[in-house]
Amino acid sequence: MGPHGHQSFLLLLALCATGAFVSATVLSGLPTTVSVMESAGPGTIIVEFNLTCQNESSVPTPAPTLQSTPPTSFFNQPTVTHHTSPTVHYSVQITLSPSAALDAWQVNQYTLTLEATCPGEMPANGQLFVQIHTVDGPPQCMARFASQVGELVQVPEDVAPLTPIYTVVLRRPASGLSFTIEDNDTPLTIDHTGQVLAPGSGFIPAHAGQAFRLQILVTDRSRRNCSGAVTVRVLPIHHPHINFTVEWRHVAVLEKRGAMQLITQVQAQGDNVRYEIIAPAAHRLYTIDAVTGELRNTYQLDLQRSPEVAHTQLLVRAYNMLHPSDSDTMGLNITVLSTNTLAPRCSPAVFLAQVPEDTPIGWTLVTLTCMDPDARNSSLRYQVEGDQHSRYSFRMQGPQLQVNDTLDYDSAASARFQYVATILVTDSGQPPLSTRVPVLVTVTPKNEHSPACPASTMFSVPEDAAFGDTVGQVNGTDLDYPFNNIEYSIAGGAGANPPAFYIGPRTGEIHVLGPLDYESKQVYILTVQLRDVANDADPRHQRSVLCDITIQVQDTNDQPPRCTPPFQEFFIYSTRDPSLPLVQLQCSDEDKSTVLPLTYTLVGGNTNGRFRLAGNTLLHFAFSYPPDSIREPHTFELLVEVTDSLSTPHHSTTATLVVHVTPWATTTPSTTTTRTTLQKEPLVVTRTERFWAPSPWFVALLTVSMVLLLVVLAWLAWKLLGRASLDSHVAKNNAALGELEKETSRTSVLSLQEQFDGRAQDP
Questions:
Q1: pLDDT tens profile 580-624
Q2: Are 598 and 560 a contacting pair, CB within 8 Å?
Q3: Are 45 and 93 a contacting pair, CB within 8 Å?
Q4: Burial of 8 (C-beta count, 10 Å sphere; 0-12/13-18/19+)
Q5: Euclidean distance between CA atoms 534 and 480, whole angstroms
Q6: Regions in the chain scoring below 70 on pLDDT
Q7: Among 10, 203, 636, 716, which one is least packed by beta carbons within 10 Å?
Q8: Can you tell me the distance from the alpha carbon of 541 to that of 290, in angstroms, rounded to the nearest whole number?
Q9: Which residues contact residue 67 at a Cβ distance below 8 angstroms, ignoring those fewer than 6 apart?
């Protein structure tokens, strides 16, 4: 019974023992052991066998798996090929992978475990032992490598040390090989795997452009060999040489900073630069980073414990890592300084001052007295610090604090009229220490600017403006803080007594005080005085300016027409020709705003309508005085209303015309005369009368003045009666009485003028 029969029997026995009737996958033709030569290449078939599925409809195709002991990637996973038959058969192959490199000296046997499962069936397992046998034959070099010319390899001169340049490849992989370079007088080497390596310290500039020919011998364990040649050509690469820009550098460092603190950093020009300290050889104080060139102290530098660390000289070498012979050196002179511990002390420690805003530039406010406790002869630096507002207002001239810019009180309002700064005093020790002296300067105001007149100095007011109406506002300006704090008063031009205008002392508003008349005065030029208030530390220091304010009175219709003469009397005969004008009224209006012609209307006295008006011309109709007719009057008192405007406001006046008609007898034919009684319509006459209605306060003031005058007169009468017996002094008393009356009258008038300005005053 072969292996296939034996496995089938075991599988059948196992199924019967378990009592199961499930079909099992069958591996047929799988040997137990196969032999493979170590020279077998990738794709070599190791074994081929069959896989049988009992279920004829096995889909999909089973995929057997393979595991190797010891683990290796030299074997491919089994490949399956389908065959058609009454049962489902598959052909399975196991081949060598592309990475296969069998070496009997390393592993002479591999155990392959296989497992295959058909869909719906029990899996089938198998085991295959692969034995590796050595090949009896010498190593075989590649043709080009073994030729007389050999291989050619080009490498740049800056290739990194020990970089593989070339690898010897044989026609048939073998194990136990050794590689040697015969008569090697080159800087190149070869390792046990056949790799040609660059020099351990890299190529030097002298190697650039040279070609090194290597004769390489490949030998196996049986001393059989093959040989070949490789020419390595070093290509020159232009690279800058290592160079320090300075030969010496002086470095100062403070003591007691702790260990591994950065002292300085050196930098050299070139490629692949590395750094090292070469002198003194036994230095322990400092260490340098080979890549960055940072120099650090290895332990804390303390001058009290180790005075010798005060001065140290080091020699630093920079070199090309790939070409160590390319190098340069630089000296370092390191000085350790003592630590500065005490800051300067200044007197005064705080400076407070109060100065006027017109303090000149360069004025010295204070001179500081400062000293450094660490060093009596240490130099001190002075600097002013502060905000944008205060920093540039002061300057330091040595220890003297001086005014550097105008101390403007007006612009310092936002800072409460104070300049806050700090004087920074710094010593020259290491590290530098500073002391700050606070400075607070308060600025007092100075009245520097006079008030300015407004740009608009012309106003207009209608002539019928009432008492207290606002004419306009005088907006004066003052650049001193508080800004535009101005007091207004009228210095002249307000008109006769009482004045026509008054001005608000704080607002600058001009109001109407007395009646205005365009016909009598059209323009008022007021002289307004502008005086600043509270702009100086001394309240007596004030500035003022006079401004001319022009007020134009606008004409309004406030005057009635005037007729010259207002009363006329005429004597005519009844036979006068009606086409002749009786009289032409001469009326005019003083208001300039009246542009329309005057209107004339008969409003009274026109009995029986005997008269008519054509404009300002009076005409009459024919008179008739028959004896048997209604008696007509012989005297007509005609009232003519003259109106200045058709729209409101309008004013009118009435002219009186008295016409005396003298009847004149004439021969007239007797006719029948029909008399018609004319219906007279009621006539409404509107008459406007102007009157003065003073304000209540004025009436009260006038009443009080009259009472005072009566009291004074009563007192004078009593005095006169008491001295009636003294005849010799009568004349003197009368003279004194006259003077007192004049003075009292003048006092009353002046009192009226002073108080009649629209403002309440405290007597």
A1: 898 888 888 877 666 667 888 898 888 888 898 888 888 888 887
A2: no
A3: yes
A4: middle
A5: 9
A6: 1-23, 55-62, 82-87, 135-137, 238-239, 375-377, 410-416, 496, 592-596, 627-631, 645-648, 665-692, 723-763
A7: 10
A8: 79
A9: 112, 113
- Which has the closest alpha carbon to 49: 11, 3, 84, 6? 3
Q: Assign residue 321 a region: left if phi > 0, alpha if psi is -120 to 50, beta otherwise?
A: alpha
- How many helices (H) and strands (E) in the chain? 5, 47
Closest CA to 30 of 168, 137, 165, 124: 124
**What are the two backbone dihedrals, phi and then psi, of residue 207, each rounded to the nearest 5 degrees?**
-75, -15
Alpha-carbon distance 42 to 172, whole Å? 11
CA pair distance 536, 589, nearest whole angstrom: 57
- Rounded CA gap, 204 and 312, in Å? 34
- Sort residue 449 into left (φ over 0), alpha (ψ -120 to 50) or beta: beta
Structure tokens belonging to residue 88: 């489902």
Dump pLDDT digits (tens) for 195-212.
Answer: 999 999 888 878 888 999
Amino acid at position 313, single letter: Q
Angle between helices 696-722 and 730-755 (to 10 degrees): 170
Q: How far apart are CA 478 and CA 491, in angstroms?
A: 19
Output the six-digit token pair for 700: 């009260």
* Strands (DSSP E) found in 463-543: 470-473, 486-492, 501-503, 509-512, 523-532
Q: Which amino acid is at 176?
A: G
Dist. CA 160–CA 197, nearest whole Å? 10
pLDDT of residue 140: 82
